UniProtKB/TrEMBL annotation:
One of its GO terms (molecular function) is sigma factor antagonist activity. This is Anti-sigma factor FoxR. It comes from Alcanivorax dieselolei (strain DSM 16502 / CGMCC 1.3690 / MCCC 1A00001 / B-5) (Alloalcanivorax dieselolei). InterPro entries: FecR, FecR_N, Ferrdict_sens_TM. PANTHER family: PERIPLASMIC SIGNAL SENSOR AND SIGMA FACTOR ACTIVATOR FECR-RELATED, PROTEIN FECR. Residues 15-55 form the FecR N-terminal domain. Residues 114-210 form the FecR protein domain.
Amino acid sequence: MPHDRTLPESVVHTAIQWQLRLDGTDDRQALRRSIRDWCERHPDHALAWERLCDLRGEFRSLLDTLPDKDMALPVLNNAGADLHRRRALKSLLALLVGVPGGWLAYKHSPLHADYRTGAGEQQRLTLDDGTHIQLNTRSSLDVRYSDSERRLVLNHGEMWVESGADSGYALPRPLRVEHRFGHCEAGQARFLLRDHQGDFATLWVEQGEVIAITATGQQQRCASGERWRLGDFAITPLATPTQPPTAWTRGMLVVDNMRLEAFVAELARYRSGHTGCDPAVADLRLSGVFQLDHPDALMDDLGRLLPVEVVWRTPWWVRVVARA
């Protein structure tokens, strides 16, 4: 079943409603469970949600024209919105539903970020100032350099950064890395920045020092070896990971006593479509070093490592359940 096929408009409307509710709730975890259950009911649901998540991360200007959370749901069911909003919704539906050329045109349009990766892809970059960057799966980055500053914008996903010396300038320009919850400033440093599906971001400093600043102006100096959670209003410390979170830069997923549900969620980032885990097996534990270059084969291996069965409905809809 092709991944770029046409979707029923009713399914797309429901996916948008889920996203709008997610934007307006204080209990995202519970609502995400409901969304996961909806995605698992039919492959069309999973595909519509995946397309919407891609658009959320990479096409914010279109989505920002939709009504706010207090207006959005009525707008989806009534024609009383202004023309500008209705046009935006029509464009969004066209991209998601898959009218002839719509979705593929979006996926290959020049409206994308300067650099992006799809599911399972990684990309290495060396910028003019000597900064080295590696983008992880499903990530996008804009580079905005000028004579006064070096500005990187992580639209979504994950990136590893080793800041360059900027030797072409007598006084090195400050390096500023923006994300949806604020920005980070660094001199000579190596660090990892990840956007967690728009809920929060995490920063892990491998070497040097990074200053994290929220959108509201709160600042935190983050030292080598430290890991921090970055939100709209707060920066909070996280436990030091038992395994360096940079294993993906070498094509590996390294886990130590990880819950199966968390493992499957992590693996889902590296493949297209819906990847789910039944609650009955969610608390099983897994340790090991896994290669990320063949995530589908890795899914199948779970049945040999744990008392589970991997159920495939289509090549892009898979669920881990208890072994019968």
